[in-house]
Amino acid sequence: MKCRKNHRPKIMLKAAGLLLAPSVVAASASGIRSLSKGKPVLRAEDTPSMSVGADVPEEYRKISGYDLTAETILSEGYGISDESDSYIPGTRLVSPLAMTSANPGDKPYPTVWGGGGSVVRTTYAHYTGTSFFDLEKGGQVNNKTSVPNSDLIEESSYLPNFTLKDTTEPQVLIYHTHTCESFEPYVRSEYDASFNYRTTDDTKNVVMVGDAIQAELEAQGIGVIHVREIHDYPSYNGAYDRSRATILPILEKYPSIKVALDIHRDAISGEGVLYQPYIEVSGKEAAQIMIISGCDDGTLGIPNYMKNFHFACALQQKIEGDTPGLTRPILFDYRKYNQDLTTGSLLIEVGTHGSTLEQVQYSGQLFGRSLGKLLNSLKTKE
Questions:
Q1: Residue 3 domain-assigned (yes or no)
Q2: With contact defined as beta carbons under 8 Å apart, do 366 and 322 qualify?
Q3: How far apart (Å, rounded) are the C-alpha atoms in residues 225 and 211?
Q4: For the domain that residue 101 is a member of, what is the CATH number?
Q5: Residue pLDDT, tens place only, 25-52
Q6: pLDDT, greater one: 105 or 46
Q7: Who's near 30: CB < 8 A, 6+ residues apart?
Q8: Do 334 and 300 contact (CB within 8 A), yes or no?
Q9: Distance from C-alpha of 209 to C-alpha of 286, rounded to nearest angstrom
Q10: Could you tell me if residue 162 is inside a domain?
Q11: Does the N-terminal peptide bond of residue 303 adopt cis geometry, omega within 30 degrees of 0?
Q12: pTM for the whole structure
C-alpha cells in the first residue's frame, strides 16, 4: 500500500521522564572467543567534506588522500578526558566509564591500554558526488543502487507506513546482531592496536547504546523491548541468522511492535589510523550516526523495502532538525539485514570503533529523543 503523500506530521513532544526503566530481555553469553581481524579495515562509503579537530597531528590533517571506498565492510570491526555534562536529553544516565557489569562474559573490556596507531578526531560534513542528494528538511541520502535519485527524492517525501497507539504494549524492538561491537574508552590520540573492539561486557558494547535509546523512548511513553542477547560470539559468521531467530518470536508475540532497530557501530580506519567522527552538542561530544536502509534488487526478499526507506527519511530529517550534523547520509544499498520483518526496520550505526563510550551513549540519547518525538507524532487516537 502506497503511503499518503501529505505534509510531514507536526511533532508533539511529550514531557520526558527521569527514570531509566529496566530492559526486558536478559543477556546470555557463553564460550566467547577473541576474533582479532588483524590490521584495521577502512569502512567509509565515499569521500565527504570534513573538518579535522585541532589536536590532529599535521601528517593526518589532509585525509582526503585516503581511498574512502576501499575495502568497505559494514559492521565488522574492531579510547581519559572528562566531557562536560551540561545537557542530557530526557534522562540522566550513569557514565559508561563508571558502569560495572555483573557478568562481563568471556571477553571483558580492557582495563589496561597500549598504543599502536593514531586516533583522528574529525567531523563528516556535507557529502558531494552523484550518489548523494539532500533531504528537504535536513540530512542526505547516499544512493548506491540503480534506483534513480529522482525517484528516491519523491519517495523521501512520503510519511512512514505505520501508525502507533497510546498503549502500554511494546511498539519498538531494539536488538543487536553484532552485540559485542565496542568503542574507545575515552578521548586520546593513540589507540590500542591489540584490541579488536569487541567485548561481551554489555556496559561497554552496543547494548549500552541500546539502553540509552530505550531510556529516551520510555521517558516519552513508548514501550520498548530491548534484546540483550549476544549473536556474534562465539561465532561471528551467521550472526544475522541468529538475531533473526531471536526476534521473530518477539514480533509474533507482540504485533504491536512497529519499529525494529538493529543497533551497531561502524568502523572507519586506514593503515595505522582510526577515525573518531563527532560533533559537539550543548558542550558535550556526540558520535555521528548513520542509518542504513536496504534495497531489494529482486533477490533479497524485501518486497516492502521502500516503506523502510520512508521511515528512514522521516527519522533522518527529524534527527537533523533537532541536532544538525549528528547524522551521516542514509546508506541506501542492496542489503537485507532482516529488514523484511517490519515496515519500520532499519540498521543504525552509532559512531565507529574510534568513538568513545561517552560519545556513543550521548548519541543514543539524542537519537532516542528524536525517534520518540517522531513516533509520538505518528500516534492515532484509537
A1: no
A2: yes
A3: 10
A4: 3.40.630.40
A5: 333 333 222 222 333 334 444 444 443 3
A6: 105
A7: 106, 234
A8: yes
A9: 12
A10: yes
A11: no
A12: 0.80
